[in-house]
Design brief:
Length: 205
């Protein structure tokens, strides 16, 4: 398996505080890779650096042979277009329906028509078990369902790599297991490189 994501000597932090330093790891293509640690240990901070939201203090993040933070902005944007992210709280727009939330990346970053974006959003929702819920709003569904919508939106642009930030956090054990199984199934069926940030050892296992 060829390497798709590689981290060399990474250090991340905020202001005067360094949260993590001297990180080295490689993620093989189409694998499932877990970043594990206790609450407040800097897992999500590392993910922010990996997904272009926080510039590292030191080190390199490589996608293929490209060092992300040393690239011009246009090249960085091209890499981000191949990456999906499911945020810990779902990060759904409360004033948008589920279909509108999922279609938003397509409307912003594709040439599809509005109708095609809607059709694709419906397909992604069906993929995560939410077919028929297109016109519901986030407040009308459960926490586990909101996580599934977050997964559907992360998959909107058919990414090669998907990051999941604490996908089972705040869920009951049955729903958490369903989300874990969904992530595993997506990895197996679509060969998506899957990087999971979690403090839940059972979920990681």
């Amino acid at each position: 398996m060829s390497l798709q994501v590689r981290v060399e000597g990474l250090a991340v932090g905020y202001g005067e505080r360094v949260v993590q330093r001297d990180l080295d790891f490689a993620v093989p293509r189409a694998s499932v890779f877990a970043i594990i640690g206790g609450s407040g240990s800097g897992k999500s901070t590392v993910m922010r650096a990996l997904t272009g939201l926080l510039e590292p203090r030191a080190g390199r993040i490589l996608y293929g042979e490209d060092s992300y933070w040393e690239l011009p902005s246009a090249r960085r944007d091209a890499i981000l277009a191949r990456i999906g992210v499911m945020y810990q709280g779902g990060a759904l727009w409360s004033g948008m329906t589920l279909a509108e939330n999922v279609a938003l990346p397509l409307e912003e970053h594709s040439t599809l028509s509005a109708a095609e974006c809607r059709d694709m959003a419906s397909l992604k929702l069906a993929l995560v078990g939410l077919g028929g819920f297109e016109d519901h709003y986030p407040a009308e569904i459960s926490g586990g369902m909101r996580k599934r919508v977050g997964v559907a939106r992360a998959l909107a642009l058919d990414p090669e790599i998907v990051y999941f930030d604490e996908p089972s956090a705040g869920l009951d054990p049955v729903t958490a297991a369903e989300i874990d199984n969904l992530i595993r199934k997506l990895n197996e069926v679509f060969a998506i490189t899957t990087i999971v940030v979690t403090h839940d050892l059972a979920s990681a296992h």
